[in-house]
Amino acid sequence: MNRDTNPPTPYPKDRGQVDQGRRQFIERIGQAGVLTVAASPLLGARAFAQQAAAPPAPIPGTVPNAAIMAEKDPAVKVLTERPLTASATAEYLHDEVTPTARLFIRNNLLTPDLDAATLRLRVTGLVDKPLDLSVEELQRRFPNVTLQAMLECAGAGRTAFSPVPRGTPWPATGGMGCPKWTGVRLRDLLSAAGVKGGAVHVAFLAADFGELATAPPVVRSIPLAKAVEPNTLVAWGLNGAPLPKVHGYPLRALVPGWVGSASIKWLVGIEVLDAPFKGTYMDDSYRIPAYPVAPGERMPKETVYTEAWPIKSIITHPAPGAKFRPGAPVMIAGRAWAGDLEVDRVEISLDEGVTWRRARLSRPRDKYAWRLFTYEWTPRERGYVTVLARATDDRGNIQPMVARWNPLGYFWNGIHRVGFSIES
Amino acid sequence: MRPPALILALGFPLLAGGEELKSGVPGAELARSKCLLCHEAGHIVRLRQSRAAWEDTVDLMIRRGAPISPEERGIILDYLTAHYGENGPAGPR
User: Fold this and answer.
1) Record: contact A58-B11, CB cut-off 8 A
2) pLDDT tens digit string along A400-409?
3) Which of A3, A120, A261, A264 has the highest CB neighbour number within 10 Å of its CB?
4) SS3 for A82?
């Protein structure tokens, strides 16, 4: 992370304080507190200038939102612009492999415009031999793997909570997708570096930066056991093409089944630690209360990290409001996934949960790929119909009707309900 | 004033219909000058939160680099609670 000894840097030179924060990445390990970058009286001067002036000055070293969204399907709706977040909803997520153009966007800061030719990935910390790799070296030196895996924001579905917590206003079925990823196994990198005794967590450092120089860099860490799991990747490919810039070009972490924030985009550093990383993206976000709290309550002192997603499913067909005819079969279909676990079964109800019927469930593909469920049903009478889908994992955990409320609105996995009509 | 102009000036003309913070009231200019450094107004306008929740929100933003002094924090919290509080008047949408 020290740009003084490694001149090629992926981020613009005027991000001095952000660079300083990254430079401290190594130094601050083991210290409490972290990232105390002093405020500057000149902060935000550019932002003020932008408000006053037209046309807008593009922010150096970043990709404008309009250019990003021009690559997306119209079904992907912008939810917030600063930072950029966008998603489609369930009826547009029926593809077995989520197309890149329909994959959700969740930025914390700006979209950096990085150069794969000069970017370095460094593996440091509790290792015998630190690594310092170009993208090309990474691709050439380690076995390449391609797998399909879920990526889902911790707050996916947040607006289904009542009251709606602050945070990205994901629709009830927004903020998730299951594309194919290509990269190298993180454990191969860690083996090459040689993990020392006492290693507990592995931290990912991102190169994105904010509009203020005081914005701390995005750093998240995961337990060593998850880091060395064979499906955890340093990825450069998405659906057979290089990662688009907004999805982390040229390198990102992929921590399948876990909250999306663990899958750090614009990855430039991997550090093996003797404890979980301490920083705002570990301690202020991506936590839930250690015990249930009443809706609307403040976060209690006792909290736990969000890690693997709980059992979940969405109905991707029919679309809400679809119309069918009596006597013609309707294929009810959707996708189910279960974090680190396996989906055991999916049941369908056509009477608001009074009775349930087992859906057909596709075979597991890659461990972290979502699974197709289907249930063919032939309506006999006209009228309005609702369908519910309820998944159960291999440990017997069943999707609830309503997910447990928590102050930051994570882990919405309430049963998805879709209404449609039979018209004669 | 100027919601469409502001959005355009910021170069993010993606959302249909701009939203703006309630202006012409105590704290409005300060809130605008701080919050809109990094966010569009929609982040605030869509929320209805208690003062405690706004405290948590503003304090998080300070930890994420927002240049807000303790005095400014109080003024901004008064503004947010008055206009985007749990029982506040209906906002622009």
Assistant:
1) yes
2) 999 999 999 9
3) A264
4) coil
Q: B27 vs A47, which has greater pLDDT?
A: B27
Q: What residues make up the domain containing B81? A: 27-93
Which residue in the set A54, A280, A285 is minimally distant from B9, CB to CB? A54
pLDDT classification of A399: cutoffs 50, 70, 90? very high
Subunit contact B67:A44, Cβ cutoff 8 A? yes
CA nearest neighbour of A388 among A325, A336, A327, A341: A336
Structure tokens at A4: 């003084």
Which one is the CATH code of A16-285: 3.40.50.300, 3.90.420.10, 3.30.750.24, 3.40.1000.20?
3.90.420.10
Give tens-digit pLDDT for A185-197: 999 999 999 999 9
- Which residue bears the tokens 């597991």? A364
Could B60 and A52 be called an inter-chain contact, meaning their C-beta atoms sit closer than 8 Å?
Answer: no
In a domain, B48, yes or no: yes
Distance from CA of B67 to the nearest CA of A (A): 6
Domain count, chain B: 1
Residue A65, φ and ψ in degrees, nearest 5: -55, -40
Distance CA A174, CA A320 (A): 14
CATH topology of domain A312-422: Immunoglobulin-like (2.60.40)
Note the pLDDT of residue B87. 62
CA distance B53 to chain A (A): 7
Tell whether the model's pLDDT for residue A56 goes beyond 90.
no
| Mode of pairing for the β-strands spanning A267-273 and A120-125 | parallel
Could you report the per-residue pLDDT of A93-108, keeping only the tens digit for each? 999 999 999 999 999 9
**CA of A300: which chain B residue's CA is closest?**
B56
Please, which residues 276-305 of chain A have a Cβ atom closer than 8 Å to chain B?
A: 280, 284-285, 296, 298-299
Cα distance between residue A74 and residue A84, in whole Å: 16
Backbone angles phi, psi at B66, to 5 degrees: -65, 130
Q: Does residue A3 carry a pLDDT above 90? A: no
Q: Where in chain A is the domain with CATH 2.60.40.650?
A: 312-422
From the candidates A43, A80, A161, A164, which should be mutated to test the interface with B, based on the most B CB atoms within 10 A?
Answer: A80
For A67, residues 6+ apart whose C-beta sits below 8 A from its C-beta are none
